[in-house]
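DM from R.C. (forwarded with permission)

"hey, sorry to bug you on a friday — could you get me a structure for this? deadline for the figure draft is monday and I only need the backbone to look sensible"
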Amino acid sequence: MTVPQHSGIQVWREDGVAPDRVAEEVPVALLFNGEAHVVMMCTPADLEDFARGFAVTEDIVAGIDEIEGLLVTELPEQGGYEVDVRIPDARAQQLDGRQRNLQGRTGCGLCGARTIEAAIRPVRRVPAGTRVALPAIRRALEALRRQQPLNAETGATHAAAWATPDGLIVATREDVGRHNALDKLIGHLLVTQQDLSRGFVVITSRASYEMIQKASCVGMPMVVAISAPTAYAVRLAEEAGITLIGFARADRQVVYACPGRLSRGGT
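My reply, with the result:
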């Protein structure tokens, strides 16, 4: 996507003044079979991936195969987008009463949920997966720095990336919202039929509860976060069997849950 340049924003340096760029954040309305479900604040890129990932990680559909089609429509007068996702009628009927009645703000995974039960869903046990060596995590962290063009231009977006067990990044998605970035990544990985039991996800944010919940929903066995997890995220990771690493750096990682998949040596 094109990052807008705003003449009113200036970078002052010793050698002069230059305009700067900022990340877009727009309302994206998600509809299912024509019925409004939620409005999320998102970066307007990879919206098809976002809708697919959201539908799966929010348990609106049982899997990517239940998404029969989707249509992205730009709404210039409202300054946003509408994504209408076609799902089986039986699934759509189950959404009655689940519509979120508040805007899903950028940093919030709960906004608009009407009950605690609707907001905090049980996590699923993930597959055993494969062992991952520390050098592979370092390799993925280093590669991720070069795969965030929006953040390089604006400094305002999060990223979620999927890496193979040897640390090769397969795909990266960015968004102003950390959980939106993960939904975009998951949507892409599912539609391209990646094996999510073999590898790990790297996120450039804290590992809050909804990141663990979404990872468990699609069977991701390891979450590597640049920042810290919350206590509730640690408990959910233990419950799901997810290896949770925080404060991931080239020379240091903090392992919060399920260290059995992690090894110090190897590739």
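R.C.: lifesaver. The mean pLDDT is 90.
me: no worries. The longest helix spans residues 178-191.
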